[in-house]
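Fold it.
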Amino acid sequence: MAGFVKMIIDYHKKNKVRADNFHFFKACMAAAALMTAADGKVDKRENLGLKILVKTLEDLKLYNASVGTELYDEFVARLVAAPEDGKAEIMVAIEAVKGDVKWASLLLAVTATISESDGVVDDDEAKILDDLCERLGIDRAAIEAFAVDTRSAHFD
């Protein structure tokens, strides 16, 4: 019986962490969508990079990958349908991590990794990353150490 009670307690603790950190997860999906659409096309390697990050990073894999994919797809669709409104909505989601160095740094590392996942970081992607760093008050050099190489990864 004690094992069952511990399992229930652990489950509720994990759900509390999920709920407390959902703003970070949503901000990451928003930033990934912004970065993916930066060059005007949604690249399969960038989508794959996001899927790998969601399955790899402890702070992201707390969430069901399908929830992340849905959020990401919604943000991309909004950017395509109404670029200015979509970008404004994305910035609101991203602003949720402003002031939290840990979350802001990790979000920027995710975003940088997405920009590099297709093997090319173009000027539009670099500008978005610079803008996000400035908006969140994080030095871009500080996030370089967090980058995850997704170019050679395979995903089932």
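The longest helix spans residues 2-36.
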